[in-house]
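Predicting holo structure, acetyl coenzyme *A bound.
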Amino acid sequence: MSLPSGYSIRELKASDHTNGILDVLSGLTTVGTVTANAFESIFKQWSTLKLSNGSNVYNPLVIVDSNGKVVATGMVFIEEKLIHSGGLVGHIEDIAVDSSQQGKSLGKFLIKELSLIAKRSGAYKVILDCSESNVKFYEKCGYKEAGVEMQIRY
Ligand code: ACO
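Done. Tokens:
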């Protein structure tokens, strides 16, 4: 599977603050205020954290169009556990494709790349939470329903 012509995928950069990523994420949920300083500080923290095996804990990716503008984003966060002999679990988070770019397989490509990063980092599984309306999309990406999400909000 490859991206449609004109699109490319890469790791998030500190300079992406003004490159459309926050607009894309606003299609997923409330983004709120993220100043350039806050963006840089979060980016630095994500870039610094490493697993015991040296892989990145945070792995944010973006898909950009031919003008370099962010049109899709998502990340896989790798959790290091005590169980399963210090096993690693990937968590797919904050997947969003710009509303004008949906239906071009960008989301599917993004999930494939994020899942691969988790596998290469040594994860034995990758999990995610999604709404009922997105179940079919994740099934098309090879994921299966497992368990029930619980939450408490503050
Ligand atoms: N219901 C049923 N099928 C779907 C859906 C859906 N909601 N969305 C996509 N599909 C199917 C497509 O038809 C396609 O099928 P095909 O391979 O047989 O042609 C396949 O899934 C792949 O679709 P893509 O074109 O890759 O999907 P897209 O690029 O539009 O991205 C996404 C899907 C990410 C859900 C996008 O619609 C989006 O950003 N929605 C708003 C934000 C959102 O809900 N994000 C996911 C939150 S969950 C999380 O972050 C862990």
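Residues 27-28, 92-97, 102-108, 128-130, 133-134, 136-137, 140 surround acetyl coenzyme *A (CB under 6 Å).
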